[in-house]
Structure formats: structure tokens, C-alpha cells
Design goal:
Elements: E1 10-11, E2 28-35, E3 38-45, E4 54-62, E5 69-78, E6 88-97, E7 102-110, E8 124-130, E9 138-143, E10 153-157, E11 163-169, E12 173-179, E13 186-193, E14 198-205, E15 208-214, E16 225-229, E17 240-241, E18 253-261, E19 266-274, E20 284-289, E21 291-293, E22 296-298, E23 305-308, E24 313-316
Antiparallel strand pairs: 1-23, 2-3, 3-4, 4-5, 6-7, 7-8, 8-9, 10-11, 11-12, 12-13, 14-15, 15-16, 16-17, 18-19, 19-20, 21-22, 23-24
This protein binds (2R,3S,4R,5S)-2-(hydroxymethyl)piperidine-3,4,5-triol (DGJ).
Length: about 325
């Protein structure tokens, strides 16, 4: 059987997701970057045997989104700026800058300064760079985008290649920031959506922008919501549920939406985390193809499914 005829591999929401080594994928709060035909999945590496003082980002690669090869712990960060113990690195997202040919990683850096008593008080983004997708990233700095608090971040790359950072700013709402030319800074606030949401994700589908976010309930699941707009700058519609409210997003929290433009159809995948706060290394993933179009977006109940990466067709098992 040639690769093209082989049946697509199955994606199993909520299961342990083994990589090529048979180890559960460590890419929590993650994001996907496509380079040529290769998808790279970056996320929080919360392996049990990680060194306690360091914070890790892992990178995996795949051509079909179902089978993932471990590439590298691309960031093993020691306390970079004299933060209080217990500082965090969450939700890393990697952009590729075609002008500088650099891979630029954004991450949520948080904690407190010594003596400030812990918690998520810093509310900053961190930036790291690398010459290759899966090399060792060099941490550059952290900052507050345009002076604003920033906790959960999301990544959106528009069809024209423009790169945006979605950022939760607790006092104000959800920002969609445009990055600077070299991606090393946040250049412009494209939109402030005045909604108390985190876990931000955006997709552009059939002429409309869809934005998803979750409520602010820590590691606990809640009904994630979506709004639509014709332009990233808004105006954005009211937020509505992506699934029946009692389903609590089937135990997941949004981290990204990924559009697959196939030869037959386009598929938008909801990527979420099913957090296990006391055993984070065992946190699971909920990836499902969304029912999307005409201003409506719905996350179907999780079932095993397959994706034909060439045609864009998703098949949910019955
Ligand atoms: C919810 C966020 O979405 C997660 O990334 C993490 O920051 C937790 N809160 C911490 O409670």
C-alpha cells in the first residue's frame, strides 16, 4: 500500500496520545505552525521527570496531524528574570518570520517578583527565537504588550500570512495584536473585545472571522464561547456557546483553531486541553472538526475521527 492509499490515522479525543516513542505527547496549551507540508506542534512540556526549576516547551512534527514525532525540548528555561519561585511558562506559540527567517516563540510568562507573594501577577509575554523550527530557542525578554497585562495568549495567522497575537488582559478584555515586522514586538492593538475570556483562538473561514474563548475558571472546564466578525477589527457579535452549556466543552479548554484547506473541502479543527491540574503530565487533548459556516460554530461531541489531510475531509466514527 502506498502512503497515499493508506487509511488515515485516527485522532482519539481524551485518550493518551502517544508520540513515535510511545510517550504521551507533552504539548499542552499548544499551537501549530505549518512549514511546507510539515506541521509542528509546540506546547507546554510537563513531563514528570523534568527538572523542577526549569520550564519546558516541546516540539513535535507530523504530516497528517494524527501521528507525531518528538523533535526536541526546544526551550528549557531557567528562571530568566529573577522571578519568584513558582513562576510559570504557559501556552507557547511559534510564528515563522519570512523576512528575518527566524522562528519566534511567544509564551505567557507569569508569577511574581520576589517578596510579592506569588500568583499570576507579572502578566507578561516572553519571546524566544531560533533559526530552525525545532532547534534550541534562545530566550530574549519578557514584556507587557503595549503596557497591557497579558495572561493566556493565542496565535492567529491570517490567509495573507499576517501574524496576530491574541491576549487576555484581565482589566480590559481580549486583544488582537499585530506583531512588529520582525515579530519581536507587539506593534498595534487591532481590536479590544470587551469580554472576560481566556484561551483565545481565531480562525478565518468563508469570509468570516470566528473567535473562541473560555470563561475564567482556572483549570476547570467551562462552556467556551464564540463570536464572529467580518474584520478582525470588529465589530464582533455577541458571544454564544460552542456546545450545549451542560457539556462544559466536553471537559476541554480552547487553545487553537486550525484550518486545513484541502482539495475537496476545508476543515477547521478545534484544539483544546483537558487539564489534569494535579497530574499535568497526564492532561489530555480534545481535537475535533468543527461544524462551522454562515456565522455558526459548533463543537460536536467528541468521538474518534480521521482526517484526510489532502482532501480536507474529516470522518467522525459513529
Ligand atoms: C487557565 C488558563 O487558561 C491556563 O492556561 C492556566 O493559566 C490556568 N488558568 C491556571 O489556573
Amino acid at each position: 500500500l502506498t502512503a497515499a492509499l493508506a487509511a488515515p490515522a485516527t485522532i482519539k479525543p481524551g485518550d493518551v496520545w502517544p508520540d513515535n516513542r510511545g510517550r504521551h505527547i507533552q504539548a499542552h496549551g499548544g499551537g501549530i505552525l505549518k512549514v511546507g507540508d510539515m506541521f509542528y506542534w509546540f506546547g507546554e512540556d510537563r513531563s514528570r521527570d523534568n527538572e523542577r526549576g526549569l520550564r519546558y516547551v516541546a516540539c513535535y512534527s507530523s504530516t497528517n496531524l494524527a501521528q507525531w514525532t518528538f523533535r526536541n525540548q526546544v526551550l528549557k528555561l531557567a528562571n530568566p528574570e529573577n522571578f519568584e519561585r513558582g513562576w510559570v511558562l504557559e501556552r507557547p506559540k511559534v510564528f515563522y518570520n519570512a523576512k528575518t527567517k527566524k522562528f519566534v516563540m511567544y509564551m505567557h510568562i507569569d508569577g511574581s517578583r520576589p517578596g510579592e507573594g506569588g500568583g499570576y501577577q507579572l502578566a507578561r509575554v516572553g519571546v524566544a527565537v531560533c533559526d530552525t523550527a525545532d532547534g534550541d530557542y534562545q530566550y530574549l525578554k519578557s514584556f507587557r504588550p503595549l503596557g497591557n497585562e497579558s495572561r493566556d495568549i493565542g496565535q492567529f495567522i491570517d490567509d495573507d500570512g499576517a501574524a496576530y497575537l491574541i491576549s487576555e488582559d484581565r482589566p480590559n478584555g481580549f486583544h488582537i495584536y499585530q506583531l512588529s515586522d520582525d515579530y519581536l514586538n507587539v506593534a498595534k492593538d487591532i481590536c479590544l473585545i470587551r469580554a472576560r475570556l481566556e484561551g483565545g483562538a481565531i480562525v478565518h473561514y468563508d469570509g468570516l472571522y470566528y473567535c473562541i474563548g473560555s470563561a475564567l475558571t482556572g483549570w476547570d472546564p467551562n462552556p467556551n464561547k464564540y463570536a464572529t466578525a467580518k474584520s478582525l477589527a470588529g465589530p464582533w457579535s455577541e458571544f454564544k456557546g460552542i456546545a450545549p452549556p451542560e457539556a462544559n466543552t466536553y471537559g476541554a479548554q480552547s487553545t487553537m483553531m486550525l484550518k486545513i484547506s484541502g482539495t475537496k473541502t476545508n476543515c477547521v479543527i478545534f484544539m483544546g486541553d483537558m487539564w489534569r491540574p494535579s497530574t499535568q503530565w497526564d492532561s489530555r487533548y480534545l481535537w475535533m472538526p468543527l461544524e462551522i459556516g454562515g456565522g455558526q460554530l459548533c463543537l460536536p461531541a467528541p468521538r474518534d475521527w480521521t482526517l484526510d489531510i489532502a482532501t480536507g475531509e474529516a470522518k467522525i466514527e459513529q
